[in-house]
Amino acid sequence: DHFITYLNGQVISSWSDKRLHRGGIGFFDDVDDPQKVAWVNLSERDSIMGRMLAHFSLIVMPPFHE
Fold first, then answer.
1. HSE (CB half, 13 Å, CA atoms) of 64?
2. Are 30 and 45 spatial neighbours (Cβ–Cβ below 8 Å)?
3. Which pLDDT value is given to residue 66?
4. Shortest CA distance to 3 belongs to which of 31, 46, 14?
5. Helix H segments across the chain?
6. Cα gap 41→57, rounded to integer Å
7. What's the DSSP call for residue 33?
8. Which of 12, 9, 3 is nearest to 43 (CA)?
9. Residue 30's pLDDT is what?
10. How far apart are CA 56 and CA 52, in angstroms?
C-alpha cells in the first residue's frame, strides 16, 4: 500500500493508498512526441511475489510495433 516512483535512480514521488491492493502499470505518450521506455523494474519488498517478479525481470521482451 506504499508506492515510490523513481526516475533515473532518484525518488520523484511517493504515496500510500490502502485502496490499491494490486494492479498494473502503464505508459502513455503523445502522438506528436513518441517516447521509448528502455527498461522497467518492478519490485515488491519481502514477499514471494516480489521474488518471482525479480526472477522474471531478467527476461527481455521484444518491442511492440503496430
1. 5
2. no
3. 47
4. 14
5. 48-56
6. 7
7. B
8. 3
9. 78
10. 6
Q: Which of 2, 4, 7 is nearest to 37 (CA)?
A: 7
Q: Are 14 and 2 in contact (CB under 8 A)?
A: yes
Residue type, 43: S
Round the average pLDDT of the chain to a whole number and report it. Answer: 71
3-state DSSP assignment of residue 52:
helix
58: left (phi over 0), alpha (psi -120 to 50) or beta: alpha
φ/ψ of residue 37, rounded to 5: -95, 115
Would the pTM of this model clear 0.85, i.e. be above it? no
Residues of the chain with pLDDT under 50: 64-66
Q: Where are the beta strands (DSSP E) in the chain?
A: 2-7, 10-16
Residue 61 grid coordinates: 521482451
pLDDT of residue 26: 72
